[in-house]
Specification:
The complex is a heterodimer of chains A (452) and B (348).
Chain A: H1 2-20, H2 23-42, H3 46-80, H4 82-116, H5 123-152, E1 157-159, E2 165-167, H6 170-174, H7 177-208, H8 212-248, H9 250-257, E3 263-264, E4 268-275, E5 280-287, H10 290-296, E6 302-303, H11 318-347, H12 355-363, H13 366-383, E7 386-388, E8 392-393, H14 404-435
Antiparallel strand pairs in A: 1-2, 3-6, 4-5, 7-8
Helix pairs in contact in A: 1-3, 1-14, 2-3, 2-5, 2-7, 3-4, 3-8, 3-14, 4-5, 5-7, 7-8, 7-12, 7-13, 8-9, 8-11, 9-13, 11-13
Chain B: H1 2-33, H2 37-47, H3 51-68, H4 70-79, H5 81-100, H6 107-137, H7 166-190, H8 193-224, H9 228-234, H10 240-258, H11 261-283, E1 286-288, E2 298-299, H12 300-303, H13 307-334
Helix pairs in contact in B: 1-2, 1-3, 1-6, 1-7, 1-11, 3-4, 5-6, 6-7, 7-8, 7-11, 8-10, 9-11, 10-11
Classes of the chains: A mainly alpha (452), B mainly alpha (348).
Chain lengths: 452, 348
């Protein structure tokens, strides 16, 4: 059974990780497109509409990939985690149902109107469709986070005689403090991806000396949004989320930080490799007392190490959790440095000529994806060994009726299908970027969402 | 309260079949009805702005099912594990067929995605029919409410049948023919000229096949699971459903002959909706009958969420669906009318 559990975890982990590569960009680009549409109207400047049209293409291809890889997620609760679904459907079914009913209909309807309706709608109505797409994608994010936050920090439920969880107060579930912190942190992370992406494409064109007028818009909007959200990502969203985590999942934070033993004035490990057997960090690079300060605001506070918790409550993969967290935090710090430097140059009006900075912006493109993925891995690995923190263990949640062999069959199938999708996606998005924001007529009658 | 949710879930599934059904059907037939690249583009343009919204009914229906009947969702999704994962792959293939075909003007590229779209649409139709067949026929469920159904065993309807047996294969074929015809009628409504004629001709060929296979499947149902007739016997109002089916089938034939494409298409909508309503009526209050021991059947009572959640969920669901219906009205109004074969403005 151990075997089947591993396959089911890998199944969900693989498909969700691949899936989240797409929504993080669409959720990040959606508000930026609204910004472009707003600037077009406020400044009465057609160049911003032009920019919005280009980004709508990138958005649409990503959206399609997000949809097709998202449908399996909705089904996998049932296929691979049947025991969990049966027990918790009374609670997390609620936000998942609402995501479908409230946001997917909204998104799909208004995306069509946004992409195909520019000629048929007034400029404010078209702005409205962009805003609705933004609203739909951000609502969808909220409902998903509500479901996840309930697993991380269950509130507002009762338990039935059969052990099942039932919603007692939907308001409490929806207003879970964990959800609000996690949502702000996640959405800010998505905007970081969106703004780095936009800035990177702009920097690419400036380095190529092509489409320079549009490229400056991309770099400017990308850098301004980038500097704001890179900072918000750490402070206050990351900071508050970390403190809340320390309060409610102390074992997770101990493993993330590689803190084996409870300590007063605990150090912050910047780098080093955790050795689970010997319970120490190899080759450590630490800042003394900083961890206590970050969590409790004083350098003498005691931070609980893993030794405070029974071993069966330790996160199951401590090294991976530790690395995920450190990669996320390290990259987050790097993003602030890059974006503050770029914003400074923008303010001094030297950015477009600073080729070294443009190179950095362009090459930074993949890193927000890595940071967002690592962040989710931190959240999900930190929750282990629980599915519902403190209440339902992961080993009691998977589909016991689906054997490891069947699970592996479909896992391999998904890997193959997603490999093909990834190739097609990279090919199509490269074509869009290679062609660039060239002026063209707007498609009056659509064939499909991704081919505007 | 459970009954209300049973009806609402059935409504969402029906909406999914009626709406996504026509773009599935368009996919099944587009290689036959549309021969040139120009014609195929026109077919795609009839479904382009709406297919994604139609498919949302599947996702939202899945979410609603999870919320209202978690035990049934958990048991059936894991029990029908393999076919469900295959359905997911087919849904991906179909979306790729629709969305990626037009990015390149290259016959190899469009050929691949045309084939992909046709193949996955046809198989999906069969799978959906088979799924319904399985739910009506029932499976062997253990005391804990779980099962794991193999794809096929000996193709007979025994006490522990596979997902595919003669009965469910027939159900799959009914779905294939019915949705193909649904798609043909939709294309006829949305196009004119040669496409419209070919679509009408396809529908005319499919109509007698559908009649025969519908009758065969109904006889099959009565022999495989005679209990479905109980509800009709006890509540004669249910007999309106077969009357609707018959009049819808007649309507398809009569309106097609008169060239009233829109009315023929609406009749086809009524046909699909009344077939599904009949299935739901016969099934109630079961969600998935157990073939081995009726006591193990999953019913709306032993599968439902808590009352508090169901009651409040009804309010949230109602408001959300009111919005959703509004969007659908807006989108369908905006893209109403026939799609012309005008070649300009692909703009990709």
């Amino acid at each position: 059974m151990e075997d089947a559990l591993f396959i089911h975890r890998l199944h969900f982990g693989f498909t969700i990780t691949f899936h989240y590569l797409f929504p993080q960009l669409t959720m990040g680009l959606a508000p930026l497109i609204v910004v472009l549409k707003t600037l077009a109207i406020r400044r009465n400047d057609e160049r911003y509409n032009h920019a919005a049209r280009f980004w709508a293409k990138v958005f649409a291809i990503n959206f399609v990939l997000g949809v097709v890889t998202g449908i399996p997620m909705e089904f996998q609760f049932g296929t691979n985690w049947a025991q969990f679904s049966k027990l918790t459907g009374g609670v997390i079914g609620q936000p998942l149902m609402m995501e479908g009913v409230y946001s997917f209909f909204l998104e799909s309807a208004f995306l069509g109107l946004f992409l195909f309706g520019e000629q048929r709608l007034s400029k404010w109505a078209h702005w409205g469709t962009a805003f609705m797409v933004f609203l739909g994608s951000w609502l969808s994010g909220y409902f998903i986070i509500v479901a996840n936050a309930w697993m991380q920090h269950p509130v507002g439920y009762t338990r039935g005689a059969d052990g099942s969880f039932q919603v007692a107060s939907f308001l409490q579930v929806a207003m879970n403090p964990w959800a609000i912190l996690q949502y702000s942190h996640t959405m800010s992370g998505a905007v970081v991806t969106g703004s780095f992406f936009m800035a990177a494409v702009g920097a690419f064109y400036l380095l190529e000396r092509k489409h320079e007028e549009q490229a400056r818009i991309f770099v400017r909007v990308g850098v301004i949004a980038g500097v704001i959200f890179s900072i918000l990502q750490v402070f206050p969203t990351g900071d508050l989320h970390g403190r809340y985590l320390a309060k409610h999942q102390p074992a997770a934070i101990a493993a993330m930080e590689g803190l084996w033993h409870s300590e007063r004035g605990a150090p912050l490990v910047i780098m080093g490799q955790p050795d689970v057997e010997k319970q120490r960090i190899d080759n450590p690079l630490v800042v003394n007392k900083l961890l206590s300060f970050l969590i409790y605001g004083t350098t003498v506070a005691k931070v609980e190490g893993l030794d405070r918790f029974p071993k069966e409550d330790w996160p199951t993969n401590i090294p991976l959790l530790y690395y995920s967290y450190h990669i996320m935090a390290g990259l987050g710090t790097m993003f602030i440095a890059i974006m503050v430097a770029a914003a400074f140059l923008l303010w001094r009006r030297r950015l477009y000529a600073s080729r070294w900075m443009l190179w950095i912006l362009m090459l930074s493109l993949p890193f927000p994806y890595i940071a967002n993925t690592a962040g989710w891995m931190t959240a999900e690995l930190g929750r282990q060994p629980w599915l519902v923190y403190g209440l339902l263990r992961t080993q009691h949640g998977f589909s016991t009726n689906v054997s490891a062999g069947n699970g592996l069959f479909t896992l391999l199938g998904f890997m193959g299908v997603y490999a093909l999708l990834a190739i097609i996606f990279l090919f199509l998005i490269s074509r869009v970027i290679a062609r660039g924001p060239v002026p063209e007529e707007i498609s009056p009658s659509p064939i499909s969402v991704s081919t505007v | 309260m459970e009954t209300i949710w049973f009806v609402l879930v059935a409504l969402m599934i029906t909406a999914y079949v009626v709406l996504d059904g026509f773009d599935l059907g368009a996919g099944i037939l587009h290689l036959v009805i549309a021969r040139t690249d120009q014609e195929r583009r026109t077919v795609f343009r009839t479904i382009g702005p709406v297919w994604d919204g139609n498919e949302v009914f599947l996702i939202a229906g899945g979410g609603t099912l999870f919320f209202a009947f978690p035990a049934f969702y958990a048991s059936s999704f894991s029990g029908f594990y393999l076919p469900l994962c295959i359905v997911l792959w087919l849904l991906i293939g179909r979306a790729a067929g629709i969305e990626f075909r037009h990015h390149l003007d290259n016959t190899v590229w469009t050929g691949i995605f045309d084939a992909c779209f046709c193949f996955s649409s046809a198989l999906l139709a069969i799978f959906f029919g088979t799924a319904l067949g399985n739910v009506i026929r029932g499976v062997a469920i253990d005391k804990g409410g779980f099962f794991f159904a193999p794809l096929w065993t000996n193709w007979r309807v025994g006490s522990d049948p596979g997902i595919l047996d003669w009965y469910t294969v027939i159900a799959g074929l009914v779905a294939l023919v019915a949705l193909a015809m649904h798609g043909a009628l939709y294309i006829a409504v949305k196009t004119d000229g040669v496409l419209n004629q070919r679509a009408r001709r396809s529908a005319a060929i499919l109509w007698p096949v559908l009649i025969v296979i519908t009758i065969v499947s109904l006889i099959g149902t009565a022999s495989v699971r005679p209990q479905v007739l109980d509800n009709f016997r006890n509540h004669p109002i249910g007999l309106l459903i077969p009357i609707l089916v018959v009049s819808a089938l007649t309507g398809i034939f009569a309106f097609s002959r008169k060239g009233e494409d829109r009315k023929a298409f609406l009749s086809s909508c009524v046909y699909l909706a009344s077939m599904l309503a009949g299935a739901a009526f016969g099934l109630y209050p079961n969600l998935l009958p157990a073939r081995n021991d009726p006591a193990n059947s999953l019913t709306i009572y032993n599968s439902a969420s808590g009352h508090h959640g169901l009651t409040y969920g009804l309010i949230w669901w109602g408001i959300g669906m009111a919005f959703a219906v509004t969007y659908f009205v807006i989108v369908y109004r905006m893209f109403r009318g026939k799609v012309t074969a005008d070649a300009s403005g692909y703009g990709h």
